[in-house]
Queue: 3 jobs
Job 1
Amino acid sequence: MLNKDFWEERYALEQTGWDIGEISQPLRNYFEGLANKKQHILIPGCGRAYEAEFLFK
């Protein structure tokens, strides 16, 4: 069940269970509160990169 094909199908069908469709409010609040806007931020994991898009904009 928890193999490569299972997760590829879930991802293709957008049924991952954790994707809320946008950056989460706690991360948005944290990023907006940062004083140094030029610092480097590591975004671990994989997914749709809502956090990276938010930081880019």
Note: The longest helix spans residues 4-12.
Job 2
Amino acid sequence: MKTSSKFILKSFAQPFLATFFISLFVLLMQFLWKYIDDIVGKGLEWTVILQLLTYVSASLVPMALPLAILLSSLMTFGNLGEHYELVAFKSAGISLKRVLRPLAVLVIILSAVAYLFSNYMLPIANLKSKSLLYDVKKQKPTMDIRPGIFSDGLENFSIRVKKKKVIDEVEHLYDVMIYDHRVPGNRSVTTAEEGIMTISENKRFLVLRLFNGENYDENFRRKNRYQYPLARTTFKENVIRFDLTQFDLNRTDEDLFKSNYKMLNMEQLESAIDTLSLIREDHFNKFKDGMTKSYFKNAAMPEQIEPNKLIDSKPDFDEFIGSLKKNQQRQVYATATNLARNSKSRLSSMVTDLYSRDKFIRYHKIYWHKKLTLSFACFILFLIGAPLGAIIRKGGLGMPIVISVIFFLVFHMISITGEKMAKEGAIPVLNGMWMASMILLPIGIFFTYKATSDSSFFRLDNYLYPIKKLFKKKKKEKAE
């Protein structure tokens, strides 16, 4: 490898790694902002949270990689242009095309890696993150007793305290009231002047030690419940243990999520699309045959009438109705009305069912194309970022970030618009998923052409010069 290529790759590597992890961090913060209420306050172990963030970070790689390539390529060539290193390359006889070549090869390799990651690793990351997030959402919040408020965190119990203090890392509760809902109705109440809440050594039980209290119990299961409907017990010390297994994170079987289209690779998506299409066609053909048999049966014909003559002849409805009696006519009209209503209802149900099936098939096709479009976006955004950096000649994090965010937002908005239109069936899936690439690819080629041909396309003086020349001409005419 030539020294110039090593220098270019080295200049690109550092900003690429930095921007990639920054982009990944920003996207991860967006995820946390969205699901913070489902994660916080549930007593999850740090290993579970770290595992969830790892899986989510892996699922965000296809989104962060194109942005990192766009920003890092713009920064790299912006720095080279700002420090006149591109001028040094040109003076040494090395054209901008030659300077772009090693990075273009590297970006093509990164695009291939992005495709392999999206096809093989991303389904696994989606499966792990979605299943774990589903379990975290179902997880009950931890026990949080607030003074003056009834807490229902423990199953079948409601606890209220008027005051709470933490002394030597031990919670002391004052004026405690506990309702036991294991018996229907508020028939079992325990009150105490003071209580101490601790966790057992094996961390499986919440131990609540109460002092100087009473228990009121309306136990209707006693034989003498009518003579003594209320039992009151006074105690100096009472210990209540609550089972904490209800707060454990119960993992759902991941096989329940494997059939989702987000958890499949391209081969599995193709197989699923074929299967769903066959099921859809079979379902529609059965409906069509049923409608044909129900409403287009040939009536029993007299033997003297030949079938060919009946088919060739046009039936006269008025003559047929006129030959019937009044009660028979009413019966024919009522039957025809019911058949028409049933037919309309069945057709409406079939239209809704076919729309849902077609939409589900389109979702599979969208994710099949998405594995290609995201990897191809890496190369397209490189074609935009690298020439822009060479033309603008501004390095650092100021101008490159602004331009990168603008182009990435344009790319992302076009992608989302095309994907939504494809999901609704407004346009074919192929056109919707490749809309952003078809729009931005010519722009990237145009920028590359302008940069490699030393065009003055982005020089403001070239656009202001004709205006200045016009004003000078007018002043000269007025002076004459």
Note: The CA atoms of residues 74 and 385 lie 4 Å apart.
Job 3
Amino acid sequence: MPSTKEEVLSESKLQEPSLYRVILHNDDYTTMEFVIDVLKTIFHKNSAEAEDIMWKIHTEGRGVCGVYTKEIAETKAEQVKSRARQNGFPLLATIEKDG
């Protein structure tokens, strides 16, 4: 149990930030090639990882692209939505708390 204000502040600074998963959802219009491109360019996956995640999205309806702090997860989800809209696809990216 901390005994001084300084110890309390020190303990609160050491807490790890919450992490969030970025999830891509399957739809009937977005091409597999586009999903792979998004996984490689936005999430920095190699070709094999991107293909594995794409198949998971295709077969299970959704797939985790990465786990990040909240701000980074939100930014990546927005990047996906923006790029999808620019290319005429309805690809949905959401975030959910990890764990």
Note: Helices lie at 5-13, 32-41, 47-60, 70-86.
